[in-house]
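sorry to bug you again but im stuck and you know this stuff better than me. theres a chain ive been looking at and ive put its sequence and its fold in token form underneath. id like you to explain what the token line says about the fold, in plain words if possible. anything you notice is useful, everything is just below.
___
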Amino acid sequence: MKRLALVFVIFVLSFGGFAQDTLHVRRLVDTLSSQSMYGRGYVNEGDKKAAKFIANEFQKTNSKTFGSSYFQPVSFAVNTFPQNMEVKIDDSTLTPFYDYKVTASSSGSTGVFEIVEIPIKQLKSLSKLKKLLEVNNFSNKFVYLDVTKISKKKQKRKSYKTAMEIIQAVPYQDIFGAKGVIIANDKLEAQGMWSKEPLQSTIIRVLRSKLAKNPKTIKVNIENKFLAKYTSQNVISYIEGTTQPDTFIVFSGHYDHLGCLGDKTIFPGANDNASGIAFMIDLANYYSKPENKPYYSIAFMAFTGEEVRILGSKYYVENPLFPLSKIKFLFNLDMVGTGDEGITLVNATANKSVYQQIDTLNKINKYLPKVDSRGESENSDHHYFHKAGVPAVFIYGTGKSGPYHHPEDNSANLTLKGYIPIFKLLTTFINTYR
């Protein structure tokens, strides 16, 4: 009976420790995705607030710095929408993001403008479009393109290929010379960010269901602020290894997110990627304990600028704080707040041995339902390390969370159900990897 009681106590203590870790991670995610961080973007210095918080958390674990600070300054260009975000089409006042989305490459606009529809059939060839632009002046008007008139069946036809290419190119170049462009869709795509000089036009994607059959006028008050040289920062620390301290296992992940779309719409970025940063802080805490001291040194790299073309990690690879050749392996953690359905390793095909070891460990211990393998991709901060010859994979979880690049990617929609299994799998692998 006493033996059973002892086993029960050990079980409870063990489970309680993991439960406490999950509660700690939840608190980290709550803070990083709170309104006070302004979506960890480049409005109201949301990125700097997040970076300072992360550095303080690293300091609590006694993680070391490379040099005198946890910060590595990084400068880049970024287009932002800090204040006014108002759109009214005819008599319909639209809600930012839910009814319409301002494309990240847009300039600002203020005023009332005529809407002129360009029939999709005019986009069937570049020559027809060129003639249309020669005889019409759209300089103080909004061009209207109704993509819903091109059915999925029509999109497959060769005759509509050019039309789709032109519409897809609108967010990247001033095709029509118009004050703005309205693109009507059945559903809205995820929000993005822009790191180049914005266009001369305001590009707005609108839900077709919110518009009249033939919209006539648009009233806009949209403010953009282009920051040609915004100074942000990577946040970097490490725990020294016991046996080979000059060799590093790296855990990376981006802490920046989309910031704000006007002063009322904030993108919390709970899964993308407050979850990865919380995971790293938890790892730093784990490896800082005497009983968990690692064989190799463990470096933690929280990158800025991922949402603007992975610029923070690009800068780091070009300006490393220790030789890249000293990195034995890099795990990039991005969207790991899920995992109840498993995880996927991007770039696994280029690191087959590590993938097979992780997959085997998972099958033996039954941590996660599955560990999937994917090929190379430029979709996160592992990319430039991989291109520089550093063995690297990007890990993301699959399962329930808030929508991607959406105001509802918040802590309330993040289950963290797969968190402990992922943590166990990675620490088990690291603790046995030689």
